[in-house]
């Protein structure tokens, strides 16, 4: 859902022009494993010598972190980190793993939102007013307001419109 890329522009251009993504051993590792691993410990073939090429751009030592919580949507978060001076130490690995895990959890859809709350949000998305939503659902306006209030809280939204946007981003509605 989000990409943060602070790698050297020259490397990103080289990587993209050579279409390394599908054969990159680091990317292959993050999509097949969870946890954290130094690039030097990855035991996946690198026939295009991508990691060797990365060194020529100052990316000599690297770390891959992959987080997957087995949710039905199959969402995975990962981070790759590189430096030129030395391997990442165990304390740095713990910090970076915690960072990627925190970002993953912040971007994960809520699992406790109810079908009734999603239904009300979907109707707001369609432009219906509270009175019409209540009528169509056969409930009171107060019940609709409560559903929307609960949905906003669960989605971390201030307004119903913001809740609708977040629910759409998560693919909930």
Automatic annotation (TrEMBL):
UniProt-listed InterPro entries: Sig_transdc_resp-reg_C-effctor (IPR016032), TF_LuxR_autoind-bd_dom (IPR005143), TF_LuxR_autoind-bd_dom_sf (IPR036693), Tscrpt_reg_LuxR_C (IPR000792), WH-like_DNA-bd_sf (IPR036388)
Gene3D superfamilies from the UniProt entry: Transcription factor LuxR-like, autoinducer-binding domain (3.30.450.80), Winged helix-like DNA-binding domain superfamily/Winged helix DNA-binding domain (1.10.10.10)
Keywords, comma-separated and alphabetical: DNA-binding, Transcription, Transcription regulation
HTH luxR-type domain ranges (all copies): 106-171
One BP term from GO: regulation of DNA-templated transcription
Keyword DNA-binding recorded: yes
GO MF annotation list: DNA binding
PROSITE patterns: HTH_LUXR_2
Domain of life where this protein originates: Bacteria
SUPFAM superfamilies attached to this UniProt entry: C-terminal effector domain of the bipartite response regulators, Pheromone-binding domain of LuxR-like quorum-sensing transcription factors
Name of the protein this chain belongs to: LuxR family transcriptional regulator
Species of the source: Histidinibacterium aquaticum
